[in-house]
Every structure is written in C-alpha cells, then in structure tokens.
C-alpha cells in the first residue's frame, strides 16, 4: 500500500459522501494503491452505516467502529494500528482539511521529510471559539514548556517509520500533534 488515509469519524453523515468523492479523486492522482480507514467513534447519526455502505462498494475503504465514544485521538490510534501504507495521512472528517491538499503534503514528503503538517490560514469558527482555542494553546504551551502552534491541527502526512513509533506510544492521555512533535521527526 502506498498511502493510507486515517480519519476519525464522529457525527459526520453530512460530510462522508463528499469526503469520499474528493479523497478518491485526489488519491487516484497519486497512486492506485491506497486505503481509506474510517474509525467511527460511536456516532449517534448514520455515520457508521454510511461507512459500511462505502466499504461494500469500494475495497479501498476500511471501517472500524469503537465500542463507545473514546474521542478523536483514540480513533486516530485505532486507525494507525490498522493502516498499512508507506505514507499515512491523518485528517478530520468534516472537510476543514481539504482532501485536495493531500497531493501537496505527499509531494513535500517526497523531498525527504518524515512529517509534513498543514497549517490553517483562516479558521471558520466563531470569534468566541477562536479566542477559546487561542487561550487553550497558550496555556497548553506554558505547561508543556514547548511553543505549540494551535493553527496546526491533525492534518499531516507521516512516514511508516513515524507510524511505527506512534504505535509504541500508548499514553493514556493522547494528543497527536504534540506526540509527533515530541518524537523529533
């Protein structure tokens, strides 16, 4: 497998078909050898049923359903535990991470990088959510004693070597951006 896409899914029935269509269009520009791993975090909507339907129609789709709502970072853990790609893209399911940008991430990774992150230029959230987010990352950076950039979300591509190291880190409290930064790739 050349590339795996790992997507934690929660309450995403309104996004999944468009996400799937945009992903497959983009991935076919890179390689015919890809997999899309969707991990349903016990959604209360039709997300899981839609994942099952997509997987039946397309062998490149793999779906996993968590037994209860564990949270996004545990969904990412499950996806990384099951992916097989030489390169793995981590992204959100709500289309805030444009699937078309995977091509740019992949091309940059081919220059010799093990980790390539995407940075959000503008946020679509309300001003109060942006203030809360900014405050969280300021406090988080203070306690971490590391300047963590809150405009960098989970959207990134990582090499198989990074995935292998992530699989060995089984911390109870998981925050992927910080874990991957901490590993030093």
Explained architecture:
This protein is of the alpha/beta class and 185 residues long. Helix content is 43%, strand content 19%. Strands 3-2-1-4-6-5 form a 6-stranded mixed beta sheet, sandwiched between helices. The model has no long low-confidence stretch (mean pLDDT 89).
Q: What would you call the shape?
A: globular
Mean pLDDT: 89
The helix fraction, in percent, is: 40-55%
Main sheet summary: 6 strands, mixed
Order of helices and strands: EHEHEHEHEHEHH
Structural class: alpha/beta
Proportion of strand residues: 15-25%
DSSP summary: helix tally: 7
Adjacency order of strands in the biggest sheet: 3-2-1-4-6-5
State the distance separating the first and last CA atoms.
Answer: 22 Å
The number of strands is 6
Radius of gyration: 16 Å
Question: What low-confidence regions span 5 or more consecutive residues with pLDDT below 50?
Answer: none
What does the secondary structure layout of this molecule look like, with pairings?
Blueprint: E1 3-9, H1 16-30, E2 34-40, H2 47-57, E3 61-65, H3 72-82, E4 87-90, H4 102-109, E5 115-119, H5 127-144, E6 152-159, H6 160-168, H7 176-183
Parallel strand pairs: 1-2, 1-4, 2-3
Antiparallel strand pairs: 4-6, 5-6
């Amino acid at each position: 497998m050349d590339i795996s896409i790992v997507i934690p899914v929660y309450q995403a029935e309104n996004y999944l078909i468009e996400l799937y269509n945009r992903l497959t269009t983009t991935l076919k520009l890179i390689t015919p050898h890809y997999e899309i791993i969707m991990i349903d975090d016990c959604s209360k909507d039709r997300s899981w049923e839609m994942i099952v339907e997509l997987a039946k129609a397309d062998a490149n789709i793999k779906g996993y359903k968590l037994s209860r709502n564990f949270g996004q970072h545990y969904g990412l853990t499950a996806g990384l535990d099951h992916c097989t790609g030489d390169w793995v893209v981590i992204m959100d399911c709500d289309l805030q991470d444009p699937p078309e940008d995977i091509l740019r991430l992949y091309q940059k990774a081919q220059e010799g990088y093990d980790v390539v992150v995407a940075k959000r230029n503008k946020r679509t959230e309300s001003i109060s959510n942006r203030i809360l987010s900014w405050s969280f990352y300021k406090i988080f950076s203070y306690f971490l004693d590391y300047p963590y950039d809150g405009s960098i979300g989970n959207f990134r591509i990582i090499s198989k070597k990074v995935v292998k190291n992530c699989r060995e880190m089984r911390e109870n409290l998981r925050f992927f951006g910080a874990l991957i930064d901490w590993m030093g790739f």
